[in-house]
Amino acid sequence: MTQPREPHAPFSSSQSGATLEASEATGALEASAALEKSAADAIPEASAIGGFAQLFPAGLPRLVMFDLDGTLVDSVPELAAAVEQMLLELGRPPVGSAAVRLWVGKGARVLVRRALAGDLHHAAVDETDTEQALALFMAAYAGSQHLTQIYPGVRDSLKWLRQQGVEMALITNKPERFVAPMLDALKIGRYFRWIIGGDTLAQQKPDPTGLLQVMKMAGVEPQQALFIGDSRSDVLAAHAAGVLCVALSYGYNHGRPIAEEAPALVIDDLRELLPGCPSACAELPLADPQSTSSEESAAW
After folding, report:
1. 22-42 and 209-218 helices cross at what angle (nearest 10)?
2. Is 126 known to be catalytic?
3. Which of 142, 120, 182, 157 is nearest to 275 (CA)?
4. What angle separates helix 108-117 from helix 76-89, to the nearest 10 degrees?
5. 216-231 confidence digits (pLDDT tens)
6. Which strand (E) or helix (H) includes residue 246?
7. Residue 253's domain spans which residues?
């Protein structure tokens, strides 16, 4: 069994150095278009050989980057609870979890603005109202994270990638201070060497800066990396970074089929990427790495 790696603290903006030039993202976008077209033409769907083998026939990617909400975990119940508490304190009517499911994906601020607007479109929402509501939402959300559930196949896939020696990173629009406690509670934080939250950098997805920065730190070229997400923002970020993107069909994409965004591959379960392991397979017999201490977990 692969020995557990030393935990790593989430990447902070002070480590990022100068902002990446726009020309880098433009060049990456052009390279990504060719990569995505080639993959999409040759690979219509995952098969028994596994999605990794289809996308990377010469061997596994050196780096796999993941989105969090809607990709690895279903956090809508906790987000909806926080939104409803926020609205209650503002004297506004509830909106229901179905609406929140359509609104998530672009970070806490946009979710709050959409809740205030009662719609995906929130341009008319006042900034003063946004700040007041955001503070209430953050306070409510801090106490509701026990409602989050990990999706089937996630643990198996993370274990398998770790056993193969593939580096992993997490790039999410969720505020950074909420990420480590969630990963710690779900016992999956140890798999990620780099973690970037929604306020770690000045930019959020669909901007590719987070992906580009992680690849730079890992010493990996775009053609050696893969991004796995569930939304338009994820696919756009991967395209702009020049990275192939696999999209989960079950996530949060504002009610639209994720296939419309032209990822390289659409799957229903992360295990479809593994060799000989369709989504209906039994749980992989891979032992969990030795648990780390709470002090180490806090550093993730």
Report:
1. 90
2. no
3. 157
4. 50
5. 999 999 999 999 999 9
6. strand 244-248
7. 13-73+148-298
Asked if residues 116 and 133 have their Cβ atoms less than 8 Å apart, the reply is yes
Among 67, 69, 156, 207, the active-site one is: 67
pLDDT band for position 255 (50/70/90)?
Answer: confident
Amino acid of residue 51: G
Domain finish residue from 147, 173, 201? 147
Is the peptide bond prior to 263 cis by the omega test (within 30 degrees of 0)?
no
Domain stops at, among 117, 147, 177? 147
Distance CA(44)–CA(264), nearest Å, equals: 8
pLDDT of 48: 59
Query: How far from 278 is each of 46, 49, 213, 247, 287, CA to CA, in Å?
Result: 9, 9, 32, 16, 20
Q: Are residues 61 and 175 in the same domain?
A: yes
Mean pLDDT of the chain: 81
pTM: predicted TM-score of the whole model, two decimal places: 0.73
Q: How many CB atoms lie within 10 A of CB 100?
A: 22
CB 155 within 8 A of CB 188: yes
**Which residues have a Cβ under 8 Å from the Cβ of 232 and sit 6 or more positions away?**
105, 206, 253, 254, 256, 258, 261
CATH number at residue 167: 3.40.50.1000
- Report how far apart, in Å, the C-alpha atoms of 49 and of each of 44, 217, 277, 280 are: 13, 31, 8, 14
pLDDT at 295 over 60: no
The verdict on residue 162 lying in a domain is yes
Q: How many CA atoms lie within 13 A of 137 on its CB side?
A: 26
Question: DSSP state, 11?
Answer: P
Structure tokens at 1: 């069994």
